[in-house]
Amino acid sequence: MTSPSRRALIAGNWKMHRTIAGSVELARAIADGARIGARTDVVVAPVATALAAVATALRGTAVQVAGQHCHWEDQGAFTGEISAEMLADAGCRWCLVGHSERRHLFAETDAMVHRKTVAVLRRGLVPIVCVGETLAEREGGVTFEVLRRQWQGAIGDLTGDDALRFAGGLVLAYEPVWAIGTGRTAKASDAQAAHAYLRDRIRHDFGDVADRVRILYGGSVKPDNAAELLAQPDVDGLLVGGASLDAAGFSRIIQAAG
Ligand code: PGA
User: Fold this and answer.
1) CA distance 47 to 23
2) Does residue 99 carry a catalytic annotation?
3) What is the model's pLDDT at position 158?
4) Ligand 1: centre distance to CA 207 (Å)
5) How large is the average pLDDT for residues 230-240?
6) Is the domain 8-256 a CATH 3.40.1170.60 member?
7) What end-to-end distance do the CA atoms of the chain give, in Å?
8) Does the active-site annotation cover 175?
9) pTM exceeds 0.90 for this model
10) Residue 127: C-alpha distances to residues 75, 130, 185, 258 (Å)
11) C-alpha 165 – ligand 1 centre gap (Å)
């Protein structure tokens, strides 16, 4: 797996699951049960109502907390939204941006993904920017075109210097839409091809910073396919949905990272 210049990152996206008490219980079970390697970062993304409680429960452990999305403004008349500043206040150090469910169910555009990415970076959080093609796009042979558009849309006018200036860096997650929640994982070789393409684009726009940007794979990751995916040279970690709701299974996925 991965180059010596990149730590592994295993992130659990809990989506709209669990109450506050259930989230704290799950977070504690992961922190207590998982053997987390010295070169692995572990992050969980609970529902917004549970963020502060989970962050408090995880204090002093190796597991960190992410928001699932945020708005680009710090505050204002945006009913239902949460800002990156508020996520930081709740104890988050990371935030998912542009998850395919946000893009496809809630009409998030590349322009919105860009504004959120910048807002998250400015607040000193690490954005985990999600990109990925639909089944129709894959079958239509336009996968790389879609990835290129979504990557360029997310970074907009950000430069490699910007990415370096913001301490936490930037993480990309390749999540083919057809693999999310379907039980249909991308073949490891297809994931590697998409990741290599994305790293090429990052190098094109950011230069050598590309060697430090972590690219996660997401889409029906399970304990028994994690190791094969992580063995690919450009797969630096995993973004796990359904399987992250089971502490024992998620711990096995964490162990696969070393
Ligand atoms: P899944 O979800 O692991 O349940 O396919 C992945 C994701 O949406 O991040």
Assistant:
1) 8
2) yes
3) 87
4) 30
5) 97
6) no
7) 9
8) yes
9) yes
10) 19, 9, 24, 23
11) 30
